[in-house]
Amino acid sequence: MDFIAFALATLTTVLLRLLCLRFFQTPPIKLPPGPRGWPIVGNLLQLTHLPHRDMSELCKKYGPLVYLKLGSVDAITTDDPDTIREILLQQDDVFASRPRTLAAVHLAYGCGDVALAPFGPNWKRMRRICMEHLLTTKRLESFAGHRAEEARDLARDVWARARGGRPINLREVLGGFSMNNVTRMLVGKQYFGGGCGGRSEAVEFMHITHELFRLLGVIYLGDYLPFWRWVDPHGCERKMREVEKQVDDFHTKIIEEHRRRIGHGGDMDFVDVLLSLPGEDGKEHMDDVEIKALIQDMIAAATDTSAVTNEWAMTEVIKHPRVLGKVQEELDKIVGHDRLVSESDLAHLNYLRCVVRETFRMHPAGPFLIPHESLRDTTIHGYHVPAKTRIFINTHGLGRNAKVWDNVEEFRPERHWSSRVEISHGGDFKILPFSAGKRKCPGAPLGVTLVLMGLAQLFHCFDWAPPEGVELRDIDTNEVYGMTMPKAHPLVAVATPRLAPHLYQ
């Protein structure tokens, strides 16, 4: 009897334990689908020098939400409008942060800026300064005269370069146009054009800016495999520190110049405004590091992104003469031949706006939005997304998603036609040049204006063709990966004036 009682008691205990395990055990975590990874490195070795294209292929294979293990970091990627809406709007409070990458620490003043700062009080304060003191409608309108001068200088510069049918390096022209517009608002100073003494300084800084964006966009193994930092065989961190020093020297010089001229009158530029603002915790002024971080956001972001977008738009329009003809037909109707384009014309140039929107679809300024990071565990489409997951929203893949767009490799502005073409955003989330939600780019209206104005001026004032001996089909559209995505090779083209000579002088 004792043996039978013992056996029954043991069996009962085992059954109760099995029942408890069944009903109370934490169910296995259901992560989004994705490729099998290797030990330690995960999926890192499956990414090439064009990771946006690799991740787009993964979305085609595994679905709209793909999980990757990048070394020690959880990551998800998507190029699906509904999934992007879920992340950026419906769960904006979960995904509003940024990862502290080594590049952001080195190149954004310890993540102390607006674009790359993790979500928190410091980011909120810096963004509020931008929105309340720098990027207000009133302040941006106050620089309209400067933007008009830069547009006239753009036409004059191209006209001078075009004499004798000489090919023009449009990357140089468009870079100078973007930088002058931004620096006149930011520091009250032109760097390119006739009479500017700072050209060599500006060329150097533009080179540094391009390098900065390349480094910020690199998927650096040291962020995903901590031991890699001890090796760093390509000297990536050393290069970050070098660029960090060069950028900081440039910003220090700007601040010192402005401090020397305080009290001498004149219009207030953005740096003057920042120097006049109080700091935190009762300080009389903002810290220099905070001012430098905001200067960098303004110069680097506005200069590089608008110049990259304009070069891509010019490339596609020159490659498609039918599109150039339609753009010029609209400009001739709205503007005519007796004056240059003004900002008030831009709202009426619907076909040109379609060209810009189509450019954002095929060639977004950045292949991904700046990566987001989840603040806590959550679920998307029934899948578990852990806290601290890195989110890669693939804007390049979004614009070439065959489930969203037809004939994805065809440059066809007409696909966007409507009575009022919206460029910067849309409720359908089919293009996303300036992001959405809390981390939407605060300078979107300015960026759209600079892109439209540069293109309108160049297409109105000139006919465009590839250099002699270059066929339309030979104009390359290969890209280089980074935080921004420029053409692999600068666009070179021949300009022929189409207006009266006095308008260029």
From TrEMBL:
Keywords assigned: Heme, Iron, Metal-binding, Monooxygenase, Oxidoreductase
Cofactors, names only: heme
GO function term, MF aspect, one: monooxygenase activity
Top-rank taxon: Eukaryota
Coiled-coil spans in chain: none
Spans traversing the lipid bilayer: none
Binding site for heme: C441
UniProt-listed Gene3D superfamilies: Cytochrome P450 (1.10.630.10)
Pfam families: p450
Keyword field contains Acyltransferase: no
Family affiliation: Belongs to the cytochrome P450 family.
Protein name: Cytochrome P450 703A2
Gene responsible for this protein: LOC111016260
